[in-house]
Amino acid sequence: MTQHINPESAPLSLKEYQQVGGYAGTVKALKEMTPAEVTNLVKASNLLGRGGAGFPTGVKWSLVPMDDNSQSKYLVCNADEMEPGTFKDRYLLEGNPHQLIAGMIAASYAIQAQKAYIFLRWAYKKAEKILREAIREAYEAGYLGKNILGTGYNLDISIHSSAGRYICGEETALLNSLEGRRAIPRTKPPFPAISGLFGKPTVVNNVETLSWISHIVEKGTEWFKGLSLTETGGTKLFGISGKVRNPGLWELPLGTTVRELLEEHAGGMLEGYGFRGLLPGGASTDFLVSEHLDVKMDFATVAAAGSRMGTGTMIILDDKTCPVAFLQNIERFFALESCGFCTPCREGLPWIEKILGAIESGNGKMEYLDILKSQKKYLAPGNTFCAHAPGAAEPLISGLNYFYDDFVSHINDKKCPWKS
Amino acid sequence: MLTEEEKKEIQEEIAQYPYPSAACIDALKIVQHHRGWVSDESVKDIAQFLQMSNEDVDGVATFYSRIYRKPVGRNVILLCDGITCMIMGYESIYEHISRKLGIRFGQTTPDNRYTLLPISCLGDCDHAPSMMINNDHFNKLTVEQVDKLLENYK
User: Fold this and answer.
1) CB contact, 8 Å: A183 with chain B?
2) Half-sphere exposure of A324 (CA within 13 A, CB side)
3) What are residue B66's phi and psi, to 5 degrees?
4) Count helices and strands in chain B by DSSP H and E runs
């Protein structure tokens, strides 16, 4: 997936990408396969959604009604990367826009959508420019527009550049935003595959997910499964940020261990810094600590260790960063980004941030820890309208568990031990 | 009143959607691009143009963090205060900018040259700390570098 990306130079043009085999799978899908065959192939490949939740992509597509293709249907690429600590989609968007467009065409064909949108994060200005040029090239080459490659299939792609807000990454909130509304999540069911954008059947897939499609169609399911060390197919973009020697992003097989990522690829901790824990897939995932270093990075294996793989981009907590301040920063983010629709999230998250702030500044009390722990129940899935607040609770509850002594010393000593 | 240019640009966005109100966010961004921010009058003008109520447009405008409902300076500094940038030391960059310009987050310099705002994770964590000035992205920030960068924005 990252084979043709060189961050130091401009991305491949359409012609250059074709010369290295780009669009081959897309051409094959449109010319030689029925839409159902494309969906079934992706289903058989066991491609799990790379946005964080890991839902099987082919299954998502197969929920779209295919009996009436005269109605409008939509494919939406979720390029609203805003999970703190996550920087993988930016790399793909800036590095190889045609890989994404080729995937979007094949995916749109599979569900017989004639219109696709790229919901792009506001801040990704460079990616926007690159994508607009790539889409222009794709129209010029006959991959987009009317009667694509003479097959009779029509598809238009538009870019919607957002106006901020993390909640837009939630797929139903994203659809409201794309309709020009406040980005508040919708009730499910109906699921977007039945009633999504403008009330029509819609599939929302992440950038990394869609970037796979043309490759899977071209090279097949066995090839894709063979790329992984686990049952799940494919490689994954993994990233590490924080006080390590070599922060960065790497494409590696699913199932690569946390230890290999941290020690070999990121080069271990910076000199003078010790490892305390990490959030494996962005701010909304549970902490993993030293005992988890041999956990394989895949959806099921990270879940078995009590966390989530999420976006696969890890944030490292070092021993010179206060875990309470670390969590306060994260919870402030979640409090600010709550859409405000449901009470536990709107009211609960700001209080969590205030309590963490009180503990951090030396004004905490032991009973505050019980209040924080109780949030696991109040912010549990089912008590909130969407996954935003449950996601915010993951680092909080696991952080309280693993760094409990640090919380207690803040309270007993009435100050933060990391501040002189 | 929307200018002819603004109307034309909004019309182009409307063409991307099945109905005009879907272009509400695009319209707000277009007006902000031309005027720096979105005034009450602009909200009414956009509402009329998209056949929406003023309240609906304002509801959208106030929801999104990158739509400014108050005037901002000629240059907007967006300093990432995300978790990785915190670990990598954005706070010292913030204190430096704040001292140099005499403003805190949410404030504008008296000469209207800079507004300083926090922004959530910019997706460039392997090169933290990072920030944007207007539409330009900068990373691996140091205090010295920030001084030079700010000079480039008049």
Assistant:
1) yes
2) 27
3) -95, 10
4) 7, 5
Q: Range of B53's domain?
A: 4-63
Contact B44, B76 (CB under 8 A): no
Q: How far apart are CA B122 and CA A108, in angstroms?
A: 29
Domains of chain A: 14-226 (3.40.50.11540), 235-318 (3.10.20.600), 323-413 (1.20.1440.230)
Chain B interface, best mutation among A118, A241, A276, by max B CB count within 10 A: A241
pLDDT tens, A53-112? 999 999 999 999 999 878 899 999 999 999 999 999 999 999 999 999 999 999 999 999
Of A165, A248, A321, the CB nearest to B126: A248
Residue A69: predicted pLDDT:
79
Q: Calculate how close chain A gets to B14, using CA atoms only, in Å.
A: 11
List the single best residue of A72, A122, A170 to mutate versus B (max B Cβ within 10 A). Answer: A122
Contact A86 B121 (CB under 8 A): yes
Using the Cβ of B26 and the Cβ atoms of chain A, whether some distance falls under 8 Å is answered with yes
Residues B90 and B28 in one domain: no
The answer, for B72 touching chain A at a CB cutoff of 8 Å, is no
Place of tokens 């902000």: B32
Distance CA A365, CA A410 (A): 9
A166 CA: distance to closest CA in chain B (Å): 9
B83:A182 CB<8 A: no
CB atoms within 10 A of CB A20: 10
Give CA–CA dist A357/A12, Å, rounded.
47
Q: Which of A103, A88, A81 is nearest to A250 (CA)?
A: A88
Residue length, chain B?
154
Q: CA distances (Å), A98 to each of A24, A142, A408, B146, in order?
A: 12, 13, 52, 35
Q: A85 at the B interface (CB within 8 A)?
A: yes
The 3-state DSSP class for residue B75 equals strand
Looking at the complex, does the CB of residue B69 fall below 8 Å from at least one CB of chain A?
A: no
A142: left (phi over 0), alpha (psi -120 to 50) or beta: left
B50 assigned to some structural domain: yes
pLDDT tens per residue, range A207-255: 999 999 999 999 999 999 999 999 899 999 999 999 999 999 999 999 9
